[in-house]
Specification:
About 75% of the residues lie in helices and about 0% in strands. It has about 300 residues and is mainly alpha-helical. Keywords: Membrane, Transmembrane, Transmembrane helix.
Length: about 300
């Protein structure tokens, strides 16, 4: 409907003489005879059939599974770029973790309620964070690291920075699994955490186990999957409308600013739709992981 409606408005604008008027274009569409309305409805139906037929392939395209030789070079460049970004995020996470720990240790040692055993654990952890060798007493002291819970002593701002860096890093799979698009990396990072039974593949995981999962979990997965496919399809629709707007408005002599404004608006909407697809992918991946954990706990023994 979005595709057919916008295309109809653009085509009416192309036929206007003088200054362009969106209100006039809408009024023209409202005053259409029944034959033209039937054509518009048929256009909606045909567009829906065509878009739905390629929804899955569209999703795979934006994930980065590119089959075109023309795009292979671009894909290699993007994979190298994302791999470097992942390496930088790993280094930043380590740096922020060390800074947060050093701050927590300083605060803890300055406080009066810390025991000698906790001091020894802090000192052993300090050697671990800074890569210094441990002696036997340090290894014994590290046994109390879980009970120490050192982050409770750290600065909230440093912990926040560390948490944000970890969230960004969690959107990347392992280096050998990096894809050329951010959407693909977000989905693969989640999918790689799914526990599969021996001989089972990920692609049909939810289909095979849908009858075993709670209805709420299946509904959550379905909702995110529909949003994901919708936004990926919408990107193609907006790209087509951007091209159509150039074709319809480029020859207009009146109000030349519209020639750039309308196509740029569609391009900006493509960026928003892609961001929305990434947000949906995060929820989709979480739903798949929850399904895997539920099956692991209630149904099948998974490795």
């Amino acid at each position: 409907m979005f595709l057919a409606g916008n295309a109809a408005v653009l085509l009416v604008l192309q036929g206007q003489e003088g200054s362009l008027s969106f209100n006039g274009a809408i009024r023209t569409l409202i005053q259409m005879e029944w034959g033209a309305i039937i054509v518009l409805v048929m256009s909606v139906i045909i567009a829906a059939i065509a878009i739905q037929a390629f929804e899955f392939e569209g999703l795979r395209f934006w994930e980065g599974y590119l089959r075109s030789r023309v795009l292979n070079g671009w894909a290699r460049i993007r994979i190298a770029s994302f791999s470097k970004k992942r390496t930088r995020l790993e280094a930043k996470c380590d740096e922020l973790a060390t800074a947060a720990f050093d701050d927590a240790r300083r605060r803890a040692l300055d406080s009066s309620g810390i025991s000698p055993a906790q001091v020894a654990t802090f000192n052993a952890l300090e050697k671990t964070f800074h890569g210094r060798p441990l002696d036997d007493s340090d290894r014994v002291a590290l046994g109390g690291a879980a009970d120490l819970r050192w982050p409770r002593f750290a600065s909230p701002s440093l912990m926040h920075d560390w948490d944000v860096a970890k969230l960004k890093l969690a959107e990347f799979p392992e280096h050998h699994r990096v894809l050329p698009t951010r959407l693909g990396n977000v989905m693969r990072a989640s999918e790689d955490q799914v526990k599969l039974a021996p001989g089972e593949d990920l692609e049909g995981f939810m289909i095979r186990h849908v009858d075993e999962l709670p209805p709420a979990m299946v509904a959550e997965h379905g909702a995110y999957r529909r949003r994901l496919e919708m936004y990926c399809g919408l990107i193609f629709v907006l790209a087509a409308l951007a091209a159509l707007s150039v074709a319809c408005l480029w020859g207009k002599t009146a109000e030349p600013g519209w020639r750039a404004a309308v196509p740029l608006a569609y391009v900006a909407a493509m960026w928003v739709a892609y961001k929305a697809a990434i947000a949906s992918a995060i929820g989709f991946g979480q739903a798949v992981k929850e399904a895997s954990l539920w099956l692991q706990k209630h149904t099948i023994p998974l490795p």
